[in-house]
Design brief:
Helices cover 34% and strands 29% of the residues. The protein is α+β, with helices and mostly antiparallel strands and 345 residues long. It has three domains: 130 residues, NusA, N-terminal domain (N Utilization Substance Protein A, Chain:P, domain 4, 2-Layer Sandwich), CATH 3.30.1480; 65 residues, OB fold (Dihydrolipoamide Acetyltransferase, E2P); 135 residues, 2-Layer Sandwich (GMP Synthetase, Chain A, domain 3). Strands 7-6-5-8-9 form a five-stranded antiparallel β-sheet. Strand 10 and strand 11 form a beta hairpin. The chain is elongated and about 105 Å long. The model has no long low-confidence stretch (mean pLDDT 88).
Length: 345
Amino acid sequence: MRLDGKSIQAAIMQLVDDYKFDPYSVLEIVKLWIKSGFKKDFPEFKKSQIIVNIENDGTVTIYKELNVVAKESEIEDPELQIITKEAKKIRKDVEAGEQILINVTPEKLELSRIASQAAAQTIKQNLKNIERERFYEKFQNKQWELLKARVIRVHADSVILDIEGTAVVLGADGQVPNRSYEPGEEIFVLLKQISKGQWGIILEITQTSAEYIEAILRKIVPELEEWVIKIEKMARIPGLKTKIVVSSNDEKIDPVWVMVGSKWDRINTVLSLLDGEKIDFVEEVGDTKQMIKNCLKPAHVDNIEIKDKKAIVTMDESQKPLAIGKWASNVKLAGQITGYNIEIR
C-alpha cells in the first residue's frame, strides 16, 4: 500500500465519517497505523522510538528519536542513543540530555501486504479503545438514573437493549420475574453501576431493585426532589408489590396523598410503567404497633402483641387474606418495613 498524501487524507476522512471521531483522534490513529506497518517492514527499527508526522496535505515523514549523551562510554544502546558530537552534525544547537529526531522516511514509502494487515489490526484496536472511552464518558455521570431503552432481542436468560445507540444486556437478575419482554417495546432501566472490566465497559442495569421504583417516583413527584416529602423505607417483591414509607417535614401536608396525586394521577403513571406490580404508600409514625397496622392495610387489625422481634397480630378471619396478600406479599413486605416477624392469627 503506497502512503501518498491523497491516500492518507482519504483514510483520515473515511474514519472521521464512519466513526464520527474528531479529526485529531483519527490523525493519531493513522500515525499509529503507519508506525506499526513501518516497524513490520523495517525490523531494524523494532526497538527504536519512531515518530510519525503527517502534514495537512497528507505528506508523511517518519523520524527515529534518539537520546543525546555526552560521551561514547555512555552509549548503552545505539538504537536509542547518540553522542553529542554526531548529533550536532544534524542539529548544531543540540546538547547532551536532549532528544534529536533523525529522518528515516524511506524514499518509496510503501507498506507490504503483511505490514498493512498488522497496521489494520492496530487501527481496529485503537478504534475499540476510543469507542470504549466514549461509551464510558457517555454513562459515567448517570449512575442511579433511569435510562430509556428499546428491546432489541430476547434470549432465554437475557434481554438485549438499545440504550442511546448502544447495545446493553439486561441480565436475568435485573428482569422482573414473569414479565414478558417484547422486541421493539420501550422500557426504563436503572443504571446501578458502570465499570471498566477486562473485556470492556460494563453497565449494570436493573428493573428489580427498590431504587428503580424510587427513581421513577423522583421523576413524577417533584416534592421528593424539593425535600418536602421523604422516602423513609422501601421494600419490594419485584412483579408483585412494593411498600414505601413516606414522611413530610410539614405537618399540614399528607405525604401519602402527595405521592398518590390529587386524582390518583401520579400513582397511575407509576403503575403504568410496572406491568401490574402494585404500590402501597404508608405514612411514617413513631408508634411501632400503629406502624404495623398501617403496613397491613387495607386489613383491619384487632390487636397486636409484641414479643421481642415478633408481632402477633389478631384479626377477623375475613381480614386475613387482605393482610397476607397475594403470595403472602403484603405480610412479607410489612415485616421487612417494620423489622418484625409478623404472625397473623
